[in-house]
Write a structure and sequence with these properties.
Distance between the termini: 43 Å
Protein name: DUF4625 domain-containing protein
Keywords: Signal
Number of helices: 2
Helix content: 10-25%
CATH class of the largest domain: Mainly Beta
CATH topology of the largest domain: Jelly Rolls
Number of domains: 2
CATH architecture of the largest domain: Sandwich
Strand content: 35-45%
Radius of gyration: 18 Å
Order of helices and strands: HHEEEEEEEEEE
């Protein structure tokens, strides 16, 4: 019985992953399916991810009115790291998730560096930290050398700023 339940959970996770990784340029919010003019005006499409695969540093600026942004990144070698700077103004929480094509990715958030230089970490593939002060928070992404998984190179990262 446990094996059947595990198989169903794996299938559900696979379907969820496939749905979440659909083409972001064509993904729409559920409000677009309603027929009211107000709902149609409020509906927006998901913006295309920011492509930062060619750089080892990136600055993600989340446009006014939005609370999330997606970025494409790549770690080409084992010892490479990627620094992603996220300017924060008037938000109380920064959350980020690394999404890799591998089922067992070996990437992680090594540190979150606050505007004053204080660092926290290591974390896994998700992180959620309070942002008590305005300024630039830096996400340091590295390979997780403690895993035996294959080398994860390309990944997506979704960053959300919230109240």
């Amino acid at each position: 019985m446990k094996k059947i339940l595990n198989n169903w959970l794996c299938l559900g996770l696979t379907l969820c992953t496939a749905a979440c990784s659909s083409n972001p340029e064509t993904a729409t919010t559920p409000a677009e399916t309603t027929d009211t003019p107000a709902a149609a005006a409020a509906a927006t499409t998901t913006p295309a991810p920011i492509d930062a695969r060619a750089d080892s540093t990136a600055t993600l600026t989340i446009p006014a009115g939005d609370s999330a942004v997606t970025m494409l990144g790549e770690l080409k070698t084992v010892n490479q790291e990627m620094l992603v700077r996220v300017p924060v103004q008037g938000k109380h929480r920064l959350s980020a998730t690394l999404i890799a094509p591998d089922s067992l990715p070996n990437i992680r958030f090594a540190q979150v560096i606050r505007p004053g230089g204080e660092a926290q970490g290591p974390f896994g593939t998700t992180v959620s930290v309070p942002t008590p002060q305005d300024g630039t928070y830096t996400l340091r992404i590295t390979h997780n050398l403690r895993t035996e998984a294959g080398l994860t190179r390309e990944f997506k990262m979704r960053v959300v700023l919230s109240q």
